[in-house]
Amino acid sequence: MGRGFGSMAALVALTVLSVMRVGLVRGNSEGDALYTLRRSLSDPDNVLQSWDPNLVNPCTWFHITCNQDGRVTRVDLGSSNLSGHLVPELGKLEHLQYLELYKNNIQGTIPVELGNLKNLISLDLYNNNISGVIPPALGKLKSLVFLRLNDNQLTGPIPRELVGISTLKVVFENNPRLEGPELQGLASYDTNCS
After folding, report:
1. H-helix or E-strand spanning residue 64
2. 188 has which bridge partners?
3. Buried b or exposed e, range 61-100, using 16+ CB within 10 angstroms
4. Going by DSSP bridges, is the β-strand pair 177-179/153-157 parallel, antiparallel, or unpaired?
5. Tens of pLDDT along 85-144?
6. Do residues 107 and 85 make contact, with C-beta atoms less than 8 angstroms apart?
7. What's the Cα-to-Cα distance from 127 to each of 36, 66, 79, 151, 183, rounded to whole Å?
8. pTM for the complete prediction?
9. What CA–CA distances, in Å, run from 86 to 5, 167, 181?
10. What is the pLDDT of residue 9?
11. Kindly report the CA angle at 180 between 158 and 127, in degrees rounded to 5?
12. Dmax over Cα atoms in the chain, in whole Å?
């Protein structure tokens, strides 16, 4: 009987540890958002192998930079041979300044929720296979300096809302189905992104 009690105590201890571990992971919405992105991408070169949802926060993951408060400020996954699609959960990375996903094979649309990233300075999605419209919500990104969307499959009008971002440099080349309004003179065009 004493032996059964020891096994029961060990089981309870393991259960408590499991619950605590899950609680810690769920307590980090940035980690959850990034792990959702990882699950939506195909990663043949195992670039995202360190993105472990059992770690308390994503600051130890490769290709992620955090500030001194442990908040994600950079996602650097350019030229990583990734395919798949972007996820709305990226809009939860409220301290993100750089989202670098250029030169991959990412498909689908640009999530409207990226318009929530108030601190975003650079959104580099060039040389992918992204389609659909450019969300007008990106016009809310008043800190945005670089919006590089060239060499994708975007369609529809370029949102007038982007005109309100005085520091913005945009690149839309090689999106043959993208149409005005012409932003020449209202936002600088940068062509050195290939």
Report:
1. strand 64-66
2. 169
3. bebbebeeeebbbbbebbebebebebbebbbbbebbbbbb
4. parallel
5. 999 999 999 999 999 999 999 999 999 999 999 999 999 999 999 999 999 999 999 999
6. yes
7. 22, 26, 9, 5, 21
8. 0.81
9. 49, 25, 26
10. 54
11. 55
12. 83
Arithmetic mean of pLDDT, 5-22: 48
**pLDDT given for residue 5 in this prediction:** 55
Q: 25-29, 69-73, 126-130, 149-153: lowest mean pLDDT where?
A: 25-29
52-69 pLDDT, tens digit per residue, is 988 878 999 999 999 999
The tokens describing 32, both together, are 């959850």
* 3-class secondary-structure state, position 42: strand
Amino acid sitting at position 64: I
Query: d(Cα 156, Cα 63) in Å, to the nearest integer?
Result: 32
pLDDT of residue 164: 86
Q: Rounded distance, CA 94 to CA 188, Å?
A: 26
What is the number of residues in the chain?
194
Pairing state between β 83-85 and 41-42: antiparallel
Looking only at the bridges linking them, the beta strands covering 98-100 and 122-124 are: parallel
Q: Which two tokens stand for residue 76?
A: 């650097």
